[in-house]
Amino acid sequence: MQTFHTPSDNKHYITNAQDSIESIDLDELRSFYADDHFVREALGAHIDSKSETRTICSFTVRQSHCNAQGAIMGGVLYTLGDFTASVADHSEGTVSATVDSSMQFLAPPKGAHIIATATTERSGRTMAFYHISIDDEQGTHIATGSYTYIHRKRSATNHA
Questions:
Q1: Structural domains counted in the chain
Q2: Alpha-carbon distance 83 to 75, whole Å?
Q3: Which of 40, 81, 98, 152 has the fewest Cβ atoms surrounding its Cβ within 10 A?
Q4: Helix H segments across the chain?
């Protein structure tokens, strides 16, 4: 599978082995997550790209993300992983929630720009499984994790 982004129309295109093309409108996806105030304001995370099997989100470390020793807090990395898996799991007509997750912290970042990549391990009718890899812009592998989501149909009373 090959992906490419055309900035002029702000769509991320995915081509697969059958040469079919699927379009994911990044503006629509970003609009959906605009009300996620914690991720947007406290974390400052951005949705960089999304395909059927891979999603990338990132943020730049700020002083508010660090503990008293000046190191980035593990919860910040966990939140980025959860957000990236949520974006990967996003589909119209369903709502999802994290039911299980784990993260292993491997090394402190050397750079200030943190990038999370979610890879879809399996996505079914009621559950989905994602592997998360978190790195900095210098290539330091900071953390790895797994997230499991449950799917529910969206109802008129469920706006999430």
A1: 1
A2: 12
A3: 152
A4: 26-32, 37, 74-89
CA separation for the pair 21, 19 (Å, rounded): 6
**For 30, how many CA atoms within 13 A lie in the half-sphere containing its CB?**
15
* Under 8 Å between Cβ of 107 and 142: yes
Angstrom distances, CA of residue 28 to CA of 73, 88, 94, 96, 128: 31, 14, 15, 18, 22
Q: What is the pLDDT of residues 12-56, one digit of tens each?
A: 433 333 333 345 688 888 998 999 999 999 999 999 999 888 999
User: Mapped to the 3 state alphabet, what secondary structure does 26-56 carry?
Assistant: HHHHHHHHHHCHHHHHHHCCEEEEECCCEEE
Q: Examine residue 160 and state whether it is found in any structural domain, yes or no.
A: no
| Pairs from 43-48 (Cβ < 8 Å, separation ≥ 24) | 43/76, 43/79, 43/80, 43/83, 45/79, 45/80, 45/83, 47/87, 48/115
Angle at 24 between CA 92 and CA 140, to 5 degrees: 105
* CATH number for position 145: 3.10.129.10
